[in-house]
Amino acid sequence: MQTRKLGPFTVSAIGLGAMPMSMNNDKVYPDHDDAVATVQAALDAGITLIDTADVYAPTWDTMGHNERIVGEAVRTYTGSTADVVIATKGGIVRGEGETRRRDGSLDYLRSAVEKSLTALGVDQLDLYQWHRPDRWMVYGQAIENFKTLQDEGLIKAIGISNANVEEIEVALQVLGEGGLASVQNEFSPRFRSSQDELDLCAEHGVAFLPWSPLGGTGGGATGIGREFAAFAEIGEAHGVSPQQVVLAWELSLSDVVIPIPGARRPASIADSAKAADLVLTEDELARCSATGRP
Ligand SMILES: NC(=O)c1ccc[n+]([C@@H]2O[C@H](COP(=O)([O-])OP(=O)(O)OC[C@H]3O[C@@H](n4cnc5c(N)ncnc54)[C@H](OP(=O)(O)O)[C@@H]3O)[C@@H](O)[C@H]2O)c1
């Protein structure tokens, strides 16, 4: 498996997005053992980056659901897990009645980190990402809170998610060049409007993790070849799925790009992992770039 840099880590060029096993638009969930098997199928395929979050859970009172699956899958895997990086997120609060709010305060984030450490069964979080900005706070102040958690040894690397250009620039200023490991934003043929953030990450050597890289659950990912025929046609020419073509095209956009396709089934993540080895011609890549929504 091709590798890429993610802050202090070297990870597989394709990661696993674990969210659909605990939260998805179809509201269909694998049972626990099947979910663990899907994470382990990703590891079998050479994937060493797994993305999760404390809020990935079917209900507000089961927060940590996805982290517990990921933690158990990695702990009980019989192969080597020495290079596995688990990326989790915090900053969103789910409450009774499915209320949601955001909290970037140090006290809240520290308590969220402690819960994530327990759910994952680890002593330090590899990559801790600020899930979504808390608009009640100055952005730079929340980033300083992440830095404090890093200085305390609770987290190894810092990432941000759903951040615009200005917010990335603030994070770079607060953390210094090299201090921001990653930015995770929505990006796919259906959603291209994070291109400016991708370009800024490329300029600074910050890993860019496209979320919902295939177009999301609820039909987006499975229907990507029907929605954008170029991916299906190029896939047919190579004897691979349209989803592999989408991921290979995303990888071609910059060395900092690390897509994290979601999966509930071992077969889909095993297929997606192969995108790291799919070589497309310049013409095919240009055709992919010319398709999709702005
Ligand atoms: N930071 C954020 O705010 C944010 C928001 C959303 C998502 N995310 C992250 O991004 C990850 C990916 O996003 P996502 O799961 O929403 O969308 P996605 O990766 O675009 O699509 C996931 C769906 O694609 C299907 N799939 C995956 N590979 C396939 C293949 N090779 N062939 C056919 N179908 C395939 C899966 O099917 P099966 O389920 O049948 O296996 C799954 O349902 C999430 O898991 C999460 O970690 C982050």
TrEMBL record:
GO terms, molecular function: oxidoreductase activity
Domain NADP-dependent oxidoreductase: from-to ranges: 14-290
InterPro entries attached to this UniProt entry: AKR, Aldo-Keto_reductase, NAD(P)_OxRdtase_dom_sf, NADP_OxRdtase_dom
Pfam families: Aldo_ket_red
GO CC terms: cytoplasm
Keyword terms of this UniProt record: Oxidoreductase
Oxidoreductase is among the record's keywords: yes
Protein name, UniProt field: Predicted oxidoreductase
Species for this entry: Microlunatus flavus
Upper taxonomic lineage: Bacteria, Bacillati, Actinomycetota, Actinomycetes, Propionibacteriales
